[in-house]
Amino acid sequence: MTIDHETLTAFAKTYGLIYMMIVFFGAVVYALWPSNQSKFDRAANSILEQDED
Amino acid sequence: MISQLTKTERETALFLTALLTLSGLTLGLLGRNDLLGYHGALLAVAGMSLTFLLIKDYYKPEPDPDNRAKYYDDPIKVGLVLALVWAVIGMIVGDWVAWLLVFPEATFDAGWASFGRLRPVHTSGVIFGFGGNALIATSFHVMQRTSRARLADNISPWVVVVGFNLFCLMAATGYLMGITASKEYAEPEWYADIFLTIIWVVYLVLYLRTLARREEPHIYVANWYYLSFVIVVAMLHILNNLAIPISLGHAKSYSLFSGVQDAMIQWWYGHNAVAFFLTTGFLGMMYYYLPKRAGRPIFSYRLSIISFWGIVFLYMWAGSHHLHYTALPHWVQTLGMTFSIMLLVPSWASAGNALLTLNGAWGKVRDDATLRFMMVAAVFYGLSTFEGSFMAIRPVNSLSHYTDWTVGHVHSGALGWVAMITFGSIYTLTPWIWRKERMYSNKLIELHFWLALVGTMIYVFAMWNSGIIQGLMWRAYNTDGTLAYSFIDSVAAMKPYYVARAIGGLMFLAGAIVCAYNVWKTAKLPTVTEYTPDKPPLPARGRPSAAAQAAE
Question: I need a labelling partner for B403 at 20 to 30 A (CA). Which of B88, B304, B391, B489 fits?
């Protein structure tokens, strides 16, 4: 099989798309996962706890 | 500074400055018949000066070992001061070239004073000199505080700060001599590019090592933004600057790519420099200093994560919108346009997240010019990302491209967003790291705020007007199908707007000078708060030598 423009475009349009969507949805699911909420609340407030600062 | 280093560290530093001197001498010898020789000399002189500084303080007593249990703020101070020095230089040159467009004959018949050589001094000076130093300095602060860990070692922060500024110096002096790779925002030649690559890898490794030692279980979101800036800029810089020098003794090199591929890689670089240098890095700044100053946690931490991945995934593909109506394949242009429009979603999510954080603290925004700087930055971020998505649409681009509208867009982002968030962060950070109760003068911050805001407005409105007039004049036809205006007609029509732009820029520059003065006076105030964190940071490895400990 020769690797030409068509091959690369086909790859980009299929596996490239699927891989990007999986990673992106992974990030969204991680961000919205209910049990992560408390962790995020703690992180958001952590920077305010130091007095300097 | 040097008295804060242990004996071993002073020796390591001496080794590095000797290496710098030697590299400079080698480069100077190889390039003795070329402009390259000057940059070799520059590096050698810098290396020797640093060596003398080190030798002068070499026998000073070693630092108190207890200092190692504190945060390491010296490199942050130096970085902030250098950021302001570059801001003033870069903006003076910027305003100079703005007047040069009004009075084009003001070049004294000297090559170095021509628009083509001075303009990159302005762009590199403000983007890399001012923005880059501010990003490095604040990232050193944010990574330590959010990790509750001291910087991983005491040498590499100096390598980053000193090395990065030497790169900026090589860039600016090179342009004046006529050294350029002719790639916008990537003008420095091959040897400077290699030098920056080494510095940047040290920066990345330092960041990762500091995070790896963190006491906090969760990596605060600002670090993600800063890290994307460090990693992606490395990737962009290396790929776009792949080039072969005509010989090791010459500054000139030729890109590995040619034709439309070269153009595509350049604008993939160029637009992602906007994305990962001028956006994600400064978003990192915003996600730390804005909540701190407002005294409120970020409105939605979840949204900050989602918009992070949105920005990272979408920006990467948007660069081809710089090449509408060129030899670039049509589908690649369409791809860039589509991704640019989608980018509006995570961009507005970030801007909205910042503004909603302030919801409930509007009283503070009214009273505190520092917080107001950050609020206005978020508004300008929202405005200029909307404008950017709009201008990336192909038919809109047919009107806006090659006109001053682009210049206006860039400055609404650079002055309104990047510089404003930086000034807000500088005013927040300065009293903390110099251990003062407050800034020297709140009135001067207020003055700076209004100079910056009014200056930006004048600038942006002038460029919108001139850009749209240019675009319309260039596409106006007579009934017989000939062009209604010659090019020089459109140039003559620009004069009033160029005057207005130069005045707006002058106001912005005046504001930056006020800021530099205020920071200087603050550093001179008596130190009133010796800050000791409740939870001491994880100390650095590399304990002071036995002699110093025995002396205790």
Answer: B88
